[in-house]
Amino acid sequence: MNRKQSYRKWTALLTALALILLFGSSLKDSLAYFTTYTTTRGSARLALGPRSEIEETIERQTKQIQIENTGETDCFVRARIYAGSLLQLTEREIVPEGGGSHWRKDGDGWWYYEAILKPGEKTNVLSVKIDVTREMMDQKIDNFNVVVVQESTLVLYREDGTPYADWELSIKSEERGGAGS
């Protein structure tokens, strides 16, 4: 073996040893990154939105409406009242009851309950007085509907901590399955 070949062998050996030392010191950390894991157990219920139910009773031509928060989160509620063309409902026929009632009629036709409803709580009563008109009696109408639609939404908070309701808020989900998925 000549000197040149011996020199190349030693250079290659020292280079390989230097690379092994260089990458070998960081190899342990790299392997730890790829092999470290953790396990977890348990579950948590996720409430995606508030739930509320309407309670209606009728006494002497008055429909009494209350909405109960049946969900697990605080919420705001609102109600809208519809009647047929023969039964005209005006401000004087829809009356919030109870001292300090939180019901407020807005220009969009909805009645908003302005207090936060905690789970299990109910709104104050909103009464709808049904006046049978002369026209209804002339047409011998003895059956009609007063339909109440109610909605609830999450209580949201501004940066200063003030609660508010966003009635446009919705939870969107992507449908899976079908062609192309």
| Weakly predicted, low-confidence segments | 176-181
The number of distinct helices, counting runs of at least 4 residues, comes to 2
Q: What's the β-strand tally?
A: 9
- Strand share of the residues? 25-35%
C-alpha termini separation:
67 Å
Major beta sheet summary: 5 strands, antiparallel
Biggest sheet: strand arrangement: 5-6-3-8-9
Helix share of residues?
A: 10-25%
Quaternary organisation: single chain
- Helix-strand topology string: HEEEEEEEHEE
| pLDDT averaged residue by residue | 78
Shape: rod-shaped
Radius of gyration: 35 Å
Structural class: alpha+beta
Summarize the structure.
With 181 residues, the protein is α+β, with helices and mostly antiparallel strands.
Please explain how this structure is put together.
The protein starts with a helix and ends in a 16-residue tail after the last strand. It has helices at 3-35, 134-138; strands spanning 52-59, 62-69, 75-83, 94-96, 103-105, 111-117, 126-129, 146-157, 163-165. The chain contains 2 helices and 9 strands, in the order αβββββββαββ. The strands form 2 sheets. It has a 5-stranded antiparallel β-sheet with strand order 5-6-3-8-9, with no helix packed on it. Strands 1-2-7-4 form a 4-stranded antiparallel β-sheet, with no helix packed on it. The chain is an alpha+beta fold and 181 residues long.
